[in-house]
Amino acid sequence: MTNKTDRIIIFDTTLRDGEQCPGATLNIDEKLVIAKQLARLGVDIIEAGFAFASPGDFEAVSKIAKIVGTENGPVICSLARAIKADIEAAAEALKPAVNARIHTFISTSDIHLEYQLRKSRAEVLAIAEEMVAYAKSFMTDVEFSPMDAARSDPEFLYQVLERAIAAGATTVNIPDTVGYTTPSEFGAIIKGIIENVPNIDQAIISVHGHNDLGLAVANFLEAVKNGARQLECTINGIGERAGNASLEELVMALHVRRQYFNPYLGRPEESQEPLTNIDTRQIYKTSRLVSNLTGMLVQPNKAIVGANAFAHESGIHQDGVLKNKLTYEIMDAQLIGLTDNQIVLGKHSGRNAFRTRLKELGFELSDTELNKAFVRFKEVADKKKDISDWDLEAIVNDEIQQAPDLFRVELVQVSCGSNARPTATVTLRTPDGEELTDAAIGTGPVDAVYKAINRVVNVPNELIEFSVQSVTGGIDAIGEVTIRLRYESKVFSGHAANTDIIVASAQAYVNALNRLYSALQRQEKPEEVSAQKV
Ligand code: KIV
Ligand code: ZN
C-alpha cells in the first residue's frame, strides 16, 4: 500500500459525523435509503455509523453492510473509539459487508489528553498501537485517527502515526477536529507527516475537518496538493457544529479545476480523467435526499447545490450567459444532475411512464414504494397540470421518507382571512388506530393547526424552525415544508411536500412529533446503551 494513489478516495461520513448535527437524527431505514444513494453517487467508503453507540446504530451499520456492502459496492466502515468493546461491536456489525473497514481513533492534542482523556502521551501511544493491532485482528482494512491532530504537537503526532502504521493501519486520517487551521498550515501538517513518519508510504493519508472558520474545503484542497489522498466529507457539508467539508464542493473543485490538480497527482496537466470516482450527475439528487430526510435545509447561496448556485439575476450576467454560457458559468448545471427537462408528466401519464421516468432519474423503488408514490403522483397531478422532474423528486422523497408512522394526519381544515380568527380542526389517527379530533385558534393558520395537533399528541415541544419552499415556480407549485422542534435538549426534524402548504405543514409537524414520540418510547427501553457521540 502506498499513499501515492493517482486518484482521490472519497470517504463519506454523512451517516456518522453528518448525523451528529442537532436534529439530523435519521432512523435505520432512512440511513439505508441514503447509503444506497451514496453507492449510486460512487463514494468509495461509507462511514455508516458508530456501531457501539446504541443498538440502533449497530443495526444501521449492519443493515448497510449487508445491503450496500456488496462485491462491487463501497467499503462499509464503522467508527470505534480505541476501546476493545467499540472495536468488537464495529467488527460484528460489519460482518455482512464484502469490503469492511474499522475506523478507530484516540485524541493526541495536549488539551484533549489533559482535560478529556486524562492520560499521558506514553499511555495514548500504547493504546493507539494496541487498539489498531486489535482492529487488525478482525480485518485487514483499518483506519486510525489521532483526534485533534491539527492542534497536536507534530513530533508526538509523527510518533503516534508511525506506531499505528506499524500496528497495521492502512489509512491514517488527520482530523482538524475543531476547524482551527488555515489552508497553508494544514498543507504543512500533511507535508510534515510525509517527511517525518518513516513508514508513511505504507498507508493512505486521509483528511477530516470541520468548518468552524469556513475553511474545511480549502484546507482539504491544500492537503491534496501536499499528498493527502482520501477526503472525509459529508453531503451538503452537514455535521457537528458548523459541519464537515462538503462532498459536492470538494468533488466539483477537483473536477472543474482538474488541470490545476493533475500535476499534484502525477498526471499530465491536460489529462481529462476524473480525479474521483464520483458520478457528478447524482450530486443534486443526493443533496436533496439528505436535506429532506435530515431536515437540514440547504442555504440558497450554497456552492454547487444551493437554489441560486446556477441562477443569474443581474442583467449583464443574463445577457452574457445567453450569448455564451462560459461568460459567467464555470460548470454546466447538468454536470451535477440538474436537468433542463422541466415538464415531463401529467394527469394522463400512466404507471409505466411514471416508473420509466423515475428510473431515468435514478430512483429504484420497490413495488410497494412505487405503488405508494404513484398514488401520490396521481393526487398531485389532479391539482397540478404539469409535473416536473423536481416535483417527482419531491413526491418520491416524501414517500420514501421513513419517519415512524405513529400518528397520521387524517384531516386538516382551517378558516382564516383578514377579518377572521385563524381556526383549525385536525383529525389524527393515533398509534392505537383511534381517530382523535381537536380544534384550536392561533395567530395564523399554521399556528392554529399546530396548536390543534398539540392538543391531540400532548407532548410538550418548542417549534424552533419552520420553512416553506416551493419546488418549482407557478401558482400550483408543490410546497415543501421543513420544520425542527426541540424537546428538552434534543432537536427533531420533519419534512413534507404537498400542493396545499397547510396540509404539508401539518404533515411535517406530525412527522417530527412521530420522531420525538418514538425516541421517547425508545428511552423507556432499559437495554438501550448510549455511548457518547464524538
Ligand atoms: O472530528 C473528528 O476528529 C472526528 C474523528 C472521530 C475522526 O470526527
Ligand atoms: Zn468529525
TrEMBL record:
Subunit annotation: Homodimer.
NCBIfam families: leuA_bact (TIGR00973), PRK00915.1-3 (NF002086)
CDD domains given in the database record: DRE_TIM_IPMS
Reactions accelerated catalytically: 3-methyl-2-oxobutanoate + acetyl-CoA + H2O = (2S)-2-isopropylmalate + CoA + H(+)
Keyword NAD in record: no
Positions contributing to Mn(2+) binding: D17, H208, H210, N244
Organism of provenance: Nostoc favosum CHAB5714
Family: Belongs to the alpha-IPM synthase/homocitrate synthase family. LeuA type 1 subfamily.
Region described as Regulatory domain: 408-534
Record key words, sorted: Acyltransferase, Amino-acid biosynthesis, Branched-chain amino acid biosynthesis, Cytoplasm, Leucine biosynthesis, Manganese, Metal-binding, Transferase
Listed name of the protein: 2-isopropylmalate synthase
Molecular function terms from GO: 2-isopropylmalate synthase activity
Limits of the Pyruvate carboxyltransferase domain: 8-269
EC number: 2.3.3.13
Job of this protein: Catalyzes the condensation of the acetyl group of acetyl-CoA with 3-methyl-2-oxobutanoate (2-ketoisovalerate) to form 3-carboxy-3-hydroxy-4-methylpentanoate (2-isopropylmalate).
Gene3D superfamilies (UniProt xref): 1.10.238.260, 3.30.160.270, Aldolase class I
Entry annotated with the keyword Metal-binding: yes
Named cofactor requirement(s): Mn(2+)
Pathway the protein takes part in: Amino-acid biosynthesis; L-leucine biosynthesis; L-leucine from 3-methyl-2-oxobutanoate: step 1/4
